[in-house]
Amino acid sequence: MAGIYIHIPFCRYKCNYCNFYSLASTRNMDRVPHAILNELKKRNDYLAGQNVETIYFGGGTPSVLPASDIESMVKAIYKNYPVEKEAEITLEANPDDLTPEKLSALKKAGINRLSMGIQSFRQEDLDFLSRTHSSSQVTQCISDAQQAGFHNLSIDLIYGIPTLTDEGWKENLEKAFSFGISHISAYSLTVEDKTPLEVMIRKGKLKPVDENLSLSHYHILSELMQQHGYEHYEISNFCLPGAYSRHNTAYWQGKHYLGIGPSAHSYNGVSRCRNVANLVKYIETAASGHVESEREVLSLVTQLNEYIMTSLRTMWGCDLVKVKHKFGSGNAEKLLVNALGYIETKQMVYQDGKLILTPEGRLFADGISAALFGEEEL
Ligand code: SF4
After folding, report:
1. Atom 8 in ligand 1: which residue has the minimum CA distance?
2. Residue 294 contacts by C-beta under 8 Å, 6 or more apart in sequence?
3. Which residue's CA is the closest to the ligand 1 atom numbered 3?
4. Buried b (16+ CB within 10 A) or exposed e, 201-234
5. Whether 77 contacts 4, CB under 8 Å
């Protein structure tokens, strides 16, 4: 089983906190679908005939494209790859793109899951983040999407925003619950270097982010999600029973995926490759059939460390039987011995052969993973 990721690098506006590869310009936008179709056709051997279980349009903001372009890409995937009958087909969308007409057209194009970048239901937070949609557009687009038959809905929320009090954060979450949204991704606001947000905070024009506020929001998040029956299945992801993002879960489980579009990554179990993060170069090289890309062959120790890092982020944890099978019993034993300190401090549990972070341990997931990494080449 494998996945296909399509990167659409355009946004209507560059949000002040964003450091993804995306362009706030429509220049060359009409050339990209054709380049993507070309790349899709040329790289149809990358997944070695594995069935495609998930397709994901990410960005950037894929909803800036006309639904007809999305439909052509979905059709091309079905034509060139063995797609499973019940494949999950997700599109990331921003509220300001989603009119009722666009929603119906996307449904018709084959999209069966929407991931909406709403970030907050409150106008003051949206203003702080320089988002272009309004709080009324947020509620409108969620009901329009449900009306259009999108029941597999995910929303992104951001916490730790200086304008967001504990009460405001609870309101945001309650609002999401009131819509019966089955999947919620919640991220702490991170101030990335050289973003306009970082510059404005440095110059004193915007309030700085307070770690204690983020921590308080994280505790509220965990508690309310649990009360409302959501599973905390990955550090930043929550869902009602069974409504996991199949595409993202496949990444965390180390399944193979093909990434199409500028800057997209692909992974086939032994190597990772990254398409050129330059739109014009991408379009030109896709036309000639060979997209410029960088390939990194992953050593065994890198594969082990990636598995430790991604699996510990999930509620399924790091499976020592898998580690033993793929990396040898010595590595599985070493991992368990190194984890004992975290088990003692109750940041981790060991059950059914798996190391799983507790809610307390999840706060330090990156540091704990790094401490468990193997160092020597296997
Ligand atoms: S819409 Fe998303 S990808 Fe685009 S600039 Fe904003 S945060 Fe970045």
Report:
1. 18
2. 273, 274
3. 60
4. beeeebeebeeebbebbbebbbebbeeeebbbbb
5. yes
**Which amino acid makes up residue 171?**
E
State how far Cα 295 lies from the chain centre.
22
Residues 207-237 have pLDDT tens digits of: 999 999 999 999 999 999 999 999 999 999 9
Strand partners, 2: 52, 256
Strand partners, 52: 2, 83
Rg (Cα) of the chain, in Å, rounded?
Answer: 21
Question: How far separated are the first and last CA of the chain, in Å rounded?
Answer: 27
Contact yes or no for 320/355 (Cβ under 8 A): yes
- 157 CA distance to ligand 1 centroid (A)? 13
Confidence (pLDDT) at 2: 96
**Ligand 1 first shell, C-beta below 6 A:** 11, 14-15, 18, 20, 22, 59-61, 94, 117
- % of the chain residues with pLDDT over 90: 93
Cα(206)–Cα(201) distance, integer angstroms:
5
Contact status, residue 347 vs residue 358, Cβ threshold 8 Å: yes
Nearest ligand 1 atom, CA 94: 1
Dihedral (Cα; 138, 139, 144, 146), 10-degree rounding: 110
Phi and psi at 159, nearest 5°, equal -120, 175
Give the containing element (helix H, strand E) for 193: none
Please indicate, yes or no, whether the overall pTM of this predicted structure exceeds 0.90. yes
Strand, coil or helix: what is 129? coil
